[in-house]
Design goal:
15 strands, 35% helix, Aminopeptidase, alpha+beta, 11-stranded mixed beta sheet
């Protein structure tokens, strides 16, 4: 530990349930629902993130003098790179071809969740240096387990700078996602008034098309979400995964556990026909200042329903509740013309083999300006008007 900081002991938990929920949540805080004990419990208890699926919990805990946790870090020993959204398949192939063994590896992350947030969870009264102690413990565990690498993904920019400043060998990486920012809008038309005339008309046409079907779109929260909604949404989720030739990470049980334990954090936008058939939906979780869009699925082809359920209803919800932003995740340049602009994301990577670490460092040096250039090009397609000459009065 640095001079002036008290030495601490870091323990490893083989399940989220080895850490009292109150202790974990006191460290995680209430701002980000994905960092809550309940969310990790839903993933692990539903067998979505478990040893059988390649996610072996190895969470880190620092206990204070009172015996309660003052710092935690979500950590998994992984046998693959699925469900991470910071792609290292090329690194794995290169290391394996060179005669190394890339898996297992350690992953500090929220499984299946490309949402930025703290990875070093600290109680408000945590001693100085607790975050550094957790980082050093991660590297120490990686060495003891003799894994090829350790990856801290979707951490905050502050945490990225912390790791870069430690003499531990972490390599910083950036990526990007698409977020919508609430600039104090009073209503959706107020937001539309900030767009160019052409984009404004296009969005209005899409909303009209989405609501022109024989469906009713509802925004459901808490007790309004019934078992039939979760059953239908799980079907939508599996159907979407099948269409993309991907793997369904989340079990049906996960969605029911999520609804039971975190109903007040769930915002489910559901589409239902006049005959009572559920045909589509978008799953969001709400935090202190953001709405996080996660999954979408639909049982039939309804024009513009995807845009309405995933993007426009999310904006409506954020404006109504004064949330600062909507995070719509990675991929999909089509989000830009709907007001969701590129935002940097961060990850940090520790590589055990010196030669391989040098190769990855060179790759990241070349990748960074390419990512920043791509973000600049994407932002240039912003739908927001360049001046006030094209203003439109909002009738809120």
């Amino acid at each position: 530990m640095p001079d002036g900081e008290k030495a601490v002991t870091v323990s490893v938990a083989g399940s989220i349930h080895e850490i009292p929920a109150a202790d974990w949540d006191a460290c995680a805080g209430a701002d980000n629902p994905f960092l809550s004990h309940a969310f990790f419990a839903a993933l692990e208890d539903s067998r979505s993130a478990c040893p059988e699926t390649g996610w072996l919990p190895r969470h880190l805990v620092v206990n204070g003098d009172d015996g309660r946790a003052v710092g935690c870090a979500p950590l998994y020993l992984k046998s693959h790179s699925y469900g991470e959204y910071v792609f290292d398949w090329g690194w794995a192939d290169a290391f394996n071809q060179a005669g190394g063994r890339y898996y297992p590896k350690l992953q500090a992350a929220v499984p299946f969740t490309p949402v930025s947030g703290r990875r070093f969870l600290l109680r408000a009264d945590a001693p100085a240096g607790t975050d550094r102690a957790l980082a050093m413990a991660m590297v120490d565990l990686a060495r003891r387990l003799r894994v090829s690498s350790l990856h801290v993904t979707f951490l905050t920019g502050e945490e990225s700078r912390l790791l870069a400043g430690l003499d531990l060998g972490f390599l910083p990486r950036i990526g990007h996602q698409f977020h919508w920012r609430n600039d104090g809008y009073r209503c959706f038309d107020d937001f539309l008034g900030r767009l160019s005339s052409r984009k404004r008309k296009a969005l209005r046409k899409e909303r009209a098309a989405a609501t022109g079907h024989d469906v009713v779109i509802r925004t459901l929260t808490s007790d309004a979400i019934e078992a039939r909604h979760w059953d239908a949404f799980h079907r939508f989720y599996v159907d979407t995964v099948d269409r993309k030739w991907a793997h369904a990470y989340l079990t049906r049980d996960f969605f029911f556990r999520l609804g039971e334990a975190m109903a007040d954090k769930v915002v489910l936008i559901i589409a239902e026909t006049g005959a009572g058939r559920l045909v589509g939906g978008a799953l969001n979780l709400v935090g202190a200042d953001a709405l996080y869009g996660r999954y979408w699925g639909c049982a039939a082809d309804y024009r513009c329903l995807h845009f309405e359920a995933c993007y426009y209803r999310a904006i409506d919800y954020a404006i109504d509740r004064g949330l600062a932003r909507v995070e719509a995740g990675a991929q999909g340049a089509h989000k830009i013309q709907r007001g969701y602009l590129p935002v940097k994301t961060y990850s940090a990577h520790w590589i055990a083999n010196a030669g391989f670490r040098s190769a990855v460092a060179r790759f990241l040096e070349a990748e960074r300006p390419a990512v920043e250039a791509e973000m600049g090009a994407l932002a240039a397609g912003s739908p927001f008007r360049r001046d006030d000459a094209d203003n439109a009065d909002a009738d809120c």
